[in-house]
Amino acid sequence: MVSVAMGIFVIVTAEILPIGLLTSIGSTFGVSDGIAGLTMTMPGVLAAVSAPTVTVAVGRLDRRMLLCGLILLLAAANIIAAAATSYPVLVASRALVGIVIGGFWSIGAGLAPRLVRPERVGVATAVIFSAVPLGSVFGVPAGTFIAQLGGWRTAFIVLGALTVVVLLALVAVLPPLPAAQPVRLAALVDLVRNRTGRTALILTVLIVTAHFGTYTYVSPFLQHVTGVGSVTPFLLVYGIAGVLGNFVAGTTVRLRLRATLVASAVALASATGLLPTLGTATIGAVVLLAVWGVAYGAVPVCSQSWFAASGTGPTEAASVLFTSSFQATIALGALLGGVVVDATSPSMLMVIGSGIALLVALLAARPTGLPRPVRQSAPVAGDAGRPAEASM
Questions:
Q1: What is the pLDDT of residues 130-179, one digit of tens each?
Q2: Residue 372 region, left (φ>0) first, then alpha (ψ -120 to 50), else beta?
Q3: CA 275 to CA 270: how far, in whole Å?
Q4: What is this structure's pTM?
Q5: What is the pLDDT of residues 208-232, one digit of tens each?
Q6: What single-letter DSSP state applies at residue 389?
Q7: How far is CA 188 from CA 56, 97, 144, 270, 348, in A?
Q8: How many CB atoms lie within 10 A of CB 372?
Q9: Distance CA 81, CA 24 (A)
Q10: What span, in angstroms and rounded, lies between the C-alpha atoms of 337 and 32?
């Protein structure tokens, strides 16, 4: 259980680490902040494709072997990134990260029932999902701090070494995990055809675009608009707030799914929309990043709950579609954000992201097509030990 959580922690850290390193990476290879943002786009694209592809292709392969192989690939990707002599090589290493994200998340996120006794499944699931916000709280700020001391390549080297430690832990403690019922492509198609599944997909695409289209370029904003030297304290504030938002949403989403998502979208829109004015001062930027962190901390919980509420097909199908759509939209958001920030400014990017988040709030507030109360298969972080329910 803990080893799987460690695996998700290093994966989340590897995925979003470039957010704190964009300016340094761009300077090294002589590319703009928008082009450097491809280091965020590439993993999302590959993860979106690999989530269904890997899950379907591996069939009945032992999940222990699969998870260990994916973590080994992640260690190699981090070392390749650290040693990259050109920007295309760095982007290629990020493609490997994307394959790991899609495959590991689709399999590892649902392993709790197979690793612990039935009465401890809730706690085990909460531990696994808590690795997501912890990656923002500790992983990215720590990586940014290491990069400030020894350069961005050093940050990838340290992460690669930590990934090897996680690999050893998985090999040592994970038992054999023969495959259960394999996921079929037909189950994924049925989920998209379902009205609630489509609603979840649309809202996920919009809210994740609003977030990652702006947050990917928060470092350039803080450095160029707020005028700070180190972004690490700001990212740490955001990460801690994200943990709080994750646990709060884990409680409220059970009975107020729509209200939770609406509140999250409104808070995200407010934080990004006010940054160009109030974020020019350090205290204003800190407060707004804290609000932003709490808001986005609720997003994965709401999105996952919405997909689970479709009640169509095996629960693994909902997990795969959640992972695939989420990762694809991370890539889309980072790509569109790069285009906007290069054509205009970080401040204009924040305003546009705010508008998209407001659209999510308006759509989510409409009762048409939203899920009825259903029981989720896996409790989320902050709701350990209780079966989660998604309702309005």
A1: 777 777 777 878 888 899 899 999 999 999 999 999 999 999 988 887 76
A2: beta
A3: 8
A4: 0.74
A5: 999 989 998 898 899 999 999 888 8
A6: E
A7: 11, 23, 38, 35, 37
A8: 10
A9: 14
A10: 12
